[in-house]
Amino acid sequence: MAHRQRHGDGSVFQRKDGRWVVQIILESGKKKQFYFKSEKEALAARRKLLHEKEQGTLATGSRQLLGVYLTNWLEQVYKPTVRPNTYKQYRSIVNYHLIPALGNIAVQKLTAEKVQSFYARKLDEGLAPKSIALIHAVLRKALNNAVKWGLVSRNVTKLVTLPRVERYEAQTLTVEQALKLIEVAGGSRIEALLLVALATGMRRGELLALRWNDIDFEKGVVHVQRTMSYIYGYGYKESEPKTRSSRRVIVLPEVATEALKVHREYQGQARIKAGEKWQEQGIVFCNIYGGFFNPSAVVAKFKVLLKDAGLPDMRFHDLRHSAATILLIAGVHSKVVQERLGHSTILTTLNVYSHVLPSMQQDAADKIDDLFGHS
After folding, report:
1. Cβ contacts of residue 85 below 8 Å, gap of 6+?
2. Spatial separation of the C-alpha atoms in residues 339 and 54, rounded to whole Å
3. How many other CB atoms are there within 10 angstroms of residue 17's CB atom?
4. Has this prediction a pTM greater than 0.85?
5. Which of 26, 154, 301, 322 would suit a FRET pair with 339, their CA atoms being 20 to 30 Å apart?
6. Which residues, in sequence order, are bridge partners of residue 286?
7. How far is CA 327 from CA 63, 323, 335, in A?
8. In tens digits, what is the pLDDT along the chain, a chain of 375 residues?
9. What string of DSSP letters covers 27-83?
10. What are phi and psi of 211, to 5 degrees?
11. How many CB atoms are located within 10 Å of the residue 142 CB?
12. SS3 call for 145
């Protein structure tokens, strides 16, 4: 049995095994077939497929399992375009979350309902909404590419609702707390590192990639030109800063300049102690042999110092937030803070540190009173 249509309208017919087939002739002249359980499904599908063909959204690529496609996309398309640590993060998400749960589903058979159910299971397993959002970002990018390749006609992740992500509230140090931390850190291997972090707002990776020739002691400035990260399976990787504006020159306060000079003297003693094991690379904040200081080791030492100082637990990145907050409360113009942090626009700075602005309102009112002679 067959339903004859005008040339180019496709055809619907039944196979000997009972399945119904919709056959569409592509622009190239090739025929593409789709299979359905009933005549009713086939007729409805033909109308939809012809509409997609007319709109130019008809998926014409070969059918394959999502697991196979994700692996190919990750290695062939995504890996060459990103930094190693970003690729490693995406590979982990693909291998440990997406493939085990959805890998055996054909790319063309993946539905918004299946993706939504997958996210719900992850939430029930205790995965944080932020982690689910990251999984979603990976799947969305992969399926955007699948649309581009003609494997599917639309990206089903656009029809999915994500669980609400609670915004992380950064812990910031007051001036008094920052001074307490530096006091307790006195004599430790990361004393100068912490002081420079608080004085400049540099990111951890930028600090650990810093070379002595990046510092101009005469002019009292530091040139931020690279960042460093440790990637399991790859080792230490240096790369360009995350944005163009992250390549910047920061004027050092005298307290930071002096701390760096003292730190250089300590490093000279460490070089003598290490002897032949020392590998000179010009790294400012290095390990005991002159190589890169492992970021995890830095964080571990930082956490111990926080505890010793009786300060609240926080991320190392919160030192960057602390530096910006202290400057803003001290009345430093937000444009200057933006440049020191390396934000691409001042809007980023204002959005991130909007919580500081209300506390500055009283200062503004007091200054108006001073100017107009209020007593």
Report:
1. 229, 231, 237
2. 51
3. 6
4. no
5. 301
6. 292
7. 57, 6, 11
8. 555 544 456 788 888 888 888 887 766 667 777 778 888 888 888 888 777 766 555 655 567 889 999 999 999 999 998 888 788 889 989 999 999 999 999 888 899 999 999 999 998 888 888 889 999 999 999 999 998 888 888 899 999 999 887 777 778 899 999 999 999 999 999 999 999 999 999 999 999 999 999 999 999 999 999 998 887 667 888 888 767 788 999 999 999 999 999 999 999 999 999 999 999 999 999 999 999 999 999 999 999 999 999 999 999 999 999 998 888 888 888 888 888 988 888 777 777 776 665 556 666 677 777 777 655
9. TTS-EEEEEESSHHHHHHHHHHHHHHHHHT----SPP-BHHHHHHHIIIIIIGGGS-
10. -110, 155
11. 23
12. helix
CA distances for 259 relative to 157, 193, 255, 275, 290, angstroms: 51, 9, 6, 24, 19
How far separated are the first and last CA of the chain, in Å rounded? Answer: 97
Distance CA(197)–CA(207), nearest Å, equals: 7
> For residue 199, which amino acid is it?
A
Residue keyed to tokens 């609702």 = 161
Q: How far is it, in rounded angstroms, from Cα 320 to Cα 170? A: 10
128 close to 170: Cβ distance less than 8 angstroms:
no
Give helix then strand counts, H and E, for the chain: 15, 9
Residue pointed to by tokens 């107009």: 372
The encoded tokens of residue 95 equal: 């291998």
CA–CA distances in Å: residue 196 to residues 141, 210, 222, 296: 38, 11, 10, 18
Segment 193-198 long-range contacts (CB within 8 Å, at least 24 positions apart): 193/285, 193/298, 194/302, 194/305, 194/319, 195/255, 195/256, 195/259, 196/222, 196/252, 196/256, 196/259, 196/260, 197/316, 197/319, 197/320, 197/323, 198/173, 198/319, 198/322, 198/323, 198/326
**Cβ atoms 337, 327 nearer than 8 A:** yes
Q: How far apart are CA 10 and CA 45, in angstroms?
A: 11
DSSP 221-247: EEEE--EEEEETTTEEEEE--SSGGGS
List strands edge to edge, sheet with 248-251: 215-216, 221-224, 248-251
